[in-house]
Design goal:
By secondary structure, the protein is mostly beta strands. It is 6% helix and 60% strand. The protein contains two helices and 13 strands. A hairpin with an 8-residue loop joins β3 and β4 (42-52). It starts with a helix and ends with a strand.
Length: 171
C-alpha cells in the first residue's frame, strides 16, 4: 500500500521472504508495477533479492549491498497521439542517498524491454530486446559504461565529481 502510494500506481508482490543464510536477504517472486489488466506501461519481475546490511536497520541510513532482479521486464507504450508512456519506476544505484536507502549494486538478469503501440484500445508489440543483463555499481571516480551488442563493444567514461555509476550491459 505504501509502495503503491509512493509510485502513484498499483504494486502487486507475491509472497515476501527473508533468510539469514548464506547471507541475509529479502526475496519476493511475481512483482508487478502498474495496472494488472494493462500490458504497457508496466514493470514485471519474476524474482527480486535484496541483500541488506542488517546493522544499518539499527543505525540508519539503510544500506543495501545488492539488489538482484531476475526476469526484469519493462514495457513502454507509444499511444495513438505519438506520446511515449513509461513506467514510473526504474532501479538505480543510490549510495549515500541522504537518509533514505543506499544501494551499492543493481544486477539485472533475463531482462526484457518491450515497446508497444496503442490505438483504439488495442496494443501491439512493435519491438523487443530479450535476455538483457546489466550490472550497475556505485563507486568513486569516473562514470563508465560497457555495452556488448550488435555494434560491438563500446566504452564511455565521464568525470562526475567524487561519485560515479559504472555499468555493464549485455544484449
Amino acid at each position: 500500500s505504501r509502495l503503491s502510494t509512493a509510485l502513484g500506481q498499483p504494486v502487486a508482490i507475491g509472497q515476501l521472504g527473508f533468510s539469514l543464510t548464506p547471507r541475509p536477504a529479502f526475496t519476493g517472486p511475481d512483482i508487478r508495477v502498474g495496472d494488472a489488466a494493462q500490458q504497457a506501461p508496466s514493470v514485471r519481475l519474476d524474482r527480486v533479492e535484496v541483500f541488506p546490511v542488517l546493522r544499518s536497520f539499527l543505525q540508519g541510513p539503510i544500506h543495501v549491498t545488492e539488489v538482484s532482479l531476475d526476469g526484469f521486464t519493462v514495457s513502454i507504450l507509444r499511444d495513438a497521439g505519438g506520446r511515449w508512456r513509461a513506467p514510473a519506476v526504474f532501479p538505480a544505484p543510490t549510495r549515500g542517498a541522504g537518509g533514505g536507502i543506499g544501494i551499492d549494486r543493481v544486477r539485472v538478469a533475463g531482462g526484457r524491454l518491450s515497446i508497444f503501440e496503442g490505438a483504439n484500445g488495442v496494443l501491439r508489440e512493435r519491438s523487443r530486446i530479450d535476455d538483457m543483463r546489466t550490472d550497475l555499481l556505485w563507486a568513486r571516480g569516473t562514470a563508465s559504461g560497457v555495452a556488448d551488442g550488435p555494434c560491438g563493444r563500446c566504452r564511455d567514461q565521464r568525470r562526475s565529481g567524487d561519485r560515479s555509476a559504472i555499468g555493464a550491459t549485455r544484449f
